[in-house]
Design goal:
single chain; about 260 residues; alpha/beta; five-stranded parallel beta sheet; four-stranded antiparallel beta sheet; 9 helices; about 40% helix; globular; Phosphatase; Phosphatase_SCO2771
Length: about 260
């Protein structure tokens, strides 16, 4: 746990709004609605490896995102500013903490941690990896070196690990990805020795949830797939937040999460 004293809920809420992790976020309303339409039309790159079972038309997705992430509920709001409710962010982080603690209480869980946002969310995942290791979890590292061509960029992406966290590398750089294929490859290599818990985002989380693995994850307001997965019982917890602010801005939220885990053990 960090040497910093965790913030009160009120101070944390103010921090989330000030840093735009929540509140008036950078993602535009136009972008959000475009992605909700894409999921409704079942565009593969917006499904994150999930196969939604419900109808989930664009209006359904908007209603879910208003409820689960706090975007503006009015369907006539078509452009300009959109929002994430910071209280929903904090509530979901606390639920994530309880889920992680539950896995640790079972004893020596096998855990996969992965992120598609190495310039932002890696800061959170590295701290979680350290916490889990200290409390007896085994951090898995399957399919290291496995590679594929990213559907989005056409570039070769290779699975690599840093501090127990899986990412994809594009030559000398960790790369942004929403692809589900890397997690699918990791689970395929593990076979029957699947993890007890996955902590991830984007396609890493979606593919794990679709495979029936206990999964918690982070998602932005323009990435509705994990919220749909949560609504359908495939994702245990989805935390709504802006997933690409300065890494140091996530520290108070991460402290709150770690404190919740430790308190629940």
């Amino acid at each position: 746990m960090s040497d910093r004293r965790p913030m009160t809920r009120e101070s944390l809420r103010a921090h989330l709004v000030r840093t735009r992790i929540a509140g008036d976020v950078a993602t535009s309303r136009e972008n959000n609605l475009d992605h909700y339409r894409a999921l409704a039309e079942r565009e593969p790159r917006h499904l994150f490896g999930l196969r939604p079972e419900g109808r989930w038309d664009e209006r359904d997705v908007l209603e879910l995102m208003a409820k689960s992430a706090g975007v503006v509920a009015d369907p006539d709001h078509r452009d300009g500013q959109d929002t994430i409710d910071p209280d929903l962010t904090i509530d979901a982080v606390e639920a994530m903490g309880d889920t992680i603690a539950g896995a640790l209480r079972v004893g020596s869980p096998r855990v996969l941690i992965a992120t598609g946002h190495p310039t932002g969310l890696l800061a959170v995942h590295l701290v979680l990896a350290g916490l889990l290791s200290r409390h007896g979890a085994t951090l898995l590292d399957p399919a290291e070196g496995w590679s594929h061509r990213s559907p989005a960029s056409g570039r070769k992406h290779e699975i690599r690990y840093l501090g127990g966290v899986a990412m994809v590398a594009d030559r000398g750089n960790f790369a942004h990805t929403h692809d589900a294929a890397p997690m699918e490859a990791m689970l395929a290599e593990l076979g029957d020795g699947r993890p007890d818990l996955v902590i991830a985002d984007h396609g890493w989380a979606g593919a794990a949830g679709e495979a029936g693995v206990l999964t918690v994850g982070f998602a932005d307001s323009n990435d509705p797939a994990l919220f749909v997965g949560e609504a359908e019982g495939k994702i245990a917890v989805t935390v709504p937040l802006d997933d690409n602010v300065l890494p140091r801005y996530y520290a108070p939220l991460t402290d709150h999460l770690i404190e919740r885990v430790v308190r629940a053990l």
